[in-house]
Amino acid sequence: MKKTIKIKNKTGEFAENKDVAKRLRLDEIMPALLDGKKVILDFKGVVGATQSFIHALISDPIRELKNTAFDNLFYKNANDGVREIISIVYRYMQESLDGSEDKSSE
Amino acid sequence: MKVFLSNQGNLRNFKSFTESLDLSNLDKLEITTHDKWVTVHPANLVLVAALAINIGKDKTDIIGKVPETGRYLDRMGLYNLTKTPSPFVYKKKEEAGRFLPIKVIRDAESQSRFITDMIPLLHLSEKNATVVKYIIGELARNVLEHSFAKDGAIVAAQYFKKTNRVSIGICDTGIGIWRSMRNSWRPRTDIDAIKLALTPGITGTTRKEGGTSENAGAGLFFVKSIAKITRNYFVIYSGSAEYTLLKYDKRVKYGPRLYADPNRDHHSETNSSPNFQGTLVAVDISLDETPEFNDLLGSIGEVYHQAIRERKREEYRRPKFI
């Protein structure tokens, strides 16, 4: 089972509206991942995105669902700039997840 | 309140501008200009505009002799925010390709509309437009999310053809950075708060690494880094503090190095400016110096990632040698 979300339909060609990102995350991405679906975020026609937008879109699935998110989130038609931002969010989210459980239990 | 617009309105001289501000007497705002020549950066404009909008048009005047170059203030929309009628009569030229006059962004939808409708008026290449959209997107969102400003974000921008540079200013009269950072980080002073806000991975909403679902503490660091890589100025003014990233010398062969710690950047700072209830951020971007956007983001992202790693390492438990 898979769910495809066309980002441009929600954001226009520049993805910066974090309210839209939050709605997509809460209403579409998280429920689909929790349902065991693969989620394809299709960036066709999106020329750029802010780090804030991408963070609001995917940081919580990564933080809450960890491997379920890593295994089931896919990014399609992302240009080099958008890819770079997604990669940045992946790197720092994994860095901040690493050992965070230990720290919070101290 | 009194504001003087001089003939040296640029980010290099922004400290002189703030030092000349008189932000006492909140009952009225008097704007004066240099009598022979007035030059303003969008930073000067949006700060004056924010004060004018906050206090009200009926309490705002432009007084004294305004030189012919003052028509720029009219073109950028400043006279509309005052009760002083514009003395300038001229044929308005098309805005496209040169400047974005003062605009107010009050919510996420109007921000998106601004970015979609206004940035194309600068007639930049797609690469350069993306940089400008990115900067305005991050800065305006910061205002909407963290400033609690009733008047929203006041934005203006100017493209300078001769130097192929875009200058952007964005200002609010909200709670300021110190109050925004206070709950999570307890900064001592306004300048401490600004430096915290510039540090990658630090957000006023949490002390947790990785931030919250909505905030990662990256926006200002990214914008400052874009200014540094393109060898330009970046200014942030809030409360009584001002931090200015100074221009990286073009004669230095190797490109600017990014640092997570804003203290390591070549900068000037003060914690004794007139107390401004709000936040102003301004940046210049030299389009000739702008590398491919994904390369730019890659360099910034690497420093951001490294900063989080190093901060986590500092928190590791140490062995107890006895």
Q: What is the N-to-C succession of helices and strands of chain A?
A: EHEHEEHHEHH
Low-confidence stretches of chain B: none
The amount of beta strand of chain B, in percent, is 15-25%
Strands in their spatial order, largest beta sheet of chain B: 4-5-6-10-7-8-9
| Uncertain spans of chain A | 101-106
Q: Tell me the domain tally of chain A.
A: 1
- Reported by name, the CATH topology of chain B is Heat Shock Protein 90
How many strands of chain B?
A: 10
CATH architecture of chain B: 2-Layer Sandwich
- Estimated share of beta-strand residues of chain A: 15-25%
Can you walk me through this structure?
The complex is a heterodimer of chains A (106) and B (322). Chain A is α/β, with parallel strands linked by helices and 106 residues long. Chain A has one domain (2-100). Chain A contains six helices and five strands. Chain A has helices at residues 7-11, 18-34, 51-65, 67-72, 80-97, 100-104; strands at 2-6, 14-15, 38-42, 48-49, 73-76. Mean pLDDT of chain A is 91; it is low at 101-106. By secondary structure, chain B is an alpha+beta fold. In chain B, 34% of the residues lie in helices and 19% in strands. Chain B has helices at 14-19, 42-55, 71-75, 108-117, 126-147, 176-185, 190-198, 219-229, 293-314; strands spanning 2-5, 29-33, 60-62, 99-105, 153-160, 165-172, 234-239, 241-245, 267-270, 276-286. In chain B, α4 (108-117) runs antiparallel to α5, α5 (126-147) packs antiparallel against α8 (219-229) and α6 (176-185) crosses α7 (190-198). The longest helix of chain B has 22 residues, at 126-147. The mean pLDDT of chain B is 91. The chains are: A alpha/beta (106), B alpha+beta (322). The interface between A and B is large, with 41 and 39 residues.
